[in-house]
Automatic annotation (TrEMBL):
<keyword id="KW-0949">S-adenosyl-L-methionine</keyword>
<dbReference type="Pfam" id="PF13489">
    <property type="entry name" value="Methyltransf_23"/>
</dbReference>
<comment type="pathway">
    <text>Cofactor biosynthesis; ubiquinone biosynthesis.</text>
</comment>
<dbReference type="GO" id="GO:0102208">
    <property type="term" value="F:2-polyprenyl-6-hydroxyphenol methylase activity"/>
</dbReference>
<feature type="binding site">
    <location>
        <position position="60"/>
    </location>
    <ligand>
        <name>S-adenosyl-L-methionine</name>
    </ligand>
</feature>
<keyword id="KW-0489">Methyltransferase</keyword>
<protein>
    <recommendedName>
        <fullName>Ubiquinone biosynthesis O-methyltransferase</fullName>
        <ecNumber>2.1.1.222</ecNumber>
        <ecNumber>2.1.1.64</ecNumber>
    </recommendedName>
</protein>
<feature type="binding site">
    <location>
        <position position="81"/>
    </location>
    <ligand>
        <name>S-adenosyl-L-methionine</name>
    </ligand>
</feature>
<dbReference type="GO" id="GO:0010420">
    <property type="term" value="F:polyprenyldihydroxybenzoate methyltransferase activity"/>
</dbReference>
<comment type="function">
    <text>O-methyltransferase that catalyzes the 2 O-methylation steps in the ubiquinone biosynthetic pathway.</text>
</comment>
<keyword id="KW-0808">Transferase</keyword>
<dbReference type="GO" id="GO:0061542">
    <property type="term" value="F:3-demethylubiquinol 3-O-methyltransferase activity"/>
</dbReference>
<dbReference type="InterPro" id="IPR029063">
    <property type="entry name" value="SAM-dependent_MTases_sf"/>
</dbReference>
<dbReference type="InterPro" id="IPR010233">
    <property type="entry name" value="UbiG_MeTrfase"/>
</dbReference>
<dbReference type="GO" id="GO:0032259">
    <property type="term" value="P:methylation"/>
</dbReference>
<feature type="binding site">
    <location>
        <position position="40"/>
    </location>
    <ligand>
        <name>S-adenosyl-L-methionine</name>
    </ligand>
</feature>
<comment type="similarity">
    <text>Belongs to the methyltransferase superfamily. UbiG/COQ3 family.</text>
</comment>
Amino acid sequence: MTEHTHNVDRAEISKFEELASRWWDPNSEFKTLHDINPLRLDYVERGAGGLDGKRVLDVGCGGGILSESMAQRGAQVMGIDMGDMPLRIAELHTLESGVEVEYRRVPVEALAAEQPESFDVVTCMEMLEHVPSPASAIDACARLVRPGGKVFFSTLNRNPKSYLLAVVGAEYIMGMLPRGTHDFSRFIRPSELDAWIRPTCIRTTDMSGMTYNPLTQVYKLDPHNLDVNYLVTCVRDTHG
């Protein structure tokens, strides 16, 4: 299969490969990921009804920030990514932290064919806006979770406000992210995400926005504000 068949954008991967060595530096270009990770982790743990003892797949795991934190909550975690350097950094960090996580360089679609219905929880955070076919990744995530299991997505809404805050503000004015991190045309409206979810064997049960106050530098979840960053919970029905 070609890399495009595997739903890979090499240019997107190279962005994160170049920065991989700084992934675990909380004051680096990945500061935002470190800052929002507690919110993402709590959202997943709450939505999953706990992580302890559950088999979890982290799709697009990068350097492993979320993967490790879920493992620390008692989950058996596999993290997958198509970037070689971020995965090496993730593996090296487990040697330092002593946290057990299995990492693999494999497309989510290939893993879905290999291990269908194998995970209690699947997370796919900040990845959908970086692949050529978000619908393909969503379908693969749905096939990987067992009946009754939960799938969690997070991505960026596409509207003028999100362009101003997530691209102009975060990348060019405040320098919170490297310039060129995001391609605004790939941002995903909640209605589009839900439309890609509906044909699969999972269904949406919750959406919650994530807001940022630049004065207090505090992130928080807000179910009434999906304007920029937002998280989604899905469940695979036991008969699906």
